[in-house]
Design brief:
two-stranded antiparallel ribbon; 6 strands
């Protein structure tokens, strides 16, 4: 799960200690991917990387980052639409969610009592994820060269971090619903 600071300080890519997962395609530029969970056979979207993508310059690192945001968002959106559930369901992955920006915390507080169909969840993933991507992409001129995924405007960075945390939570909800559809059971919040 994303922390408020996201811990993206270095330029080097770190590998996750998670179990080896067969990715859907070995030919890709992004570190986010769709896969079939070996335990449940359910389609899943990978966790969003907490480390910086590789790059020769701070701007290249930042550009690859917002491309990964777009890919992550679209993969979550697509999987949620494929689930096809028409029964409105609570968004369990936001129950205890806290974000640094007040506007987006108010959004989360509303989401805590909302129930969404899979299609509505898909549309919400797309809405929040595209906002995250655009907030990152429109502030390239403020990037901190030593930490290219951070910007000098602290309040805007809090908005970016909040959109990150929210998008990741919504994609985790999509993953839970995918497992539940495949296995026919209701899972626990992860």
């Amino acid at each position: 799960m994303a922390s408020q600071t996201k811990g993206r300080e270095s330029w080097t890519e770190e590998n996750s200690p998670r179990t080896t997962i067969r990715e859907s395609s070995p030919l890709k530029l992004s570190r986010v991917f769709r896969f079939v969970d070996p335990q449940t056979s359910a389609s899943q979207i990978s966790d969003f990387p907490d480390s910086n993508p590789s790059g020769d310059t701070p701007l290249e690192v930042r550009m690859k980052h917002f491309t990964e945001i777009e890919n992550f968002t679209f993969l979550g959106y697509t999987l949620a639409h494929e689930l096809g559930g028409t029964t409105p369901t609570p968004i369990r992955t936001v129950t205890d969610l806290q974000v640094p920006d007040e506007e987006f915390q108010n959004f989360i507080n509303e989401a805590k009592s909302a129930t969404l169909t899979d299609e509505e969840l898909a549309d919400t993933v797309l809405d929040v994820g595209i906002n995250w991507e655009h907030f990152v992409a429109s502030n390239d001129n403020l990037l901190i060269p030593e930490h290219p995924l951070k910007i000098t405007d602290v309040l805007m960075q809090e908005k970016i971090d909040s959109l990150d945390i929210i998008t990741e939570a919504f994609v985790r909800e999509v993953n839970l619903r995918s497992i539940e559809k495949k296995t026919g059971t209701k899972g626990r919040q992860s």
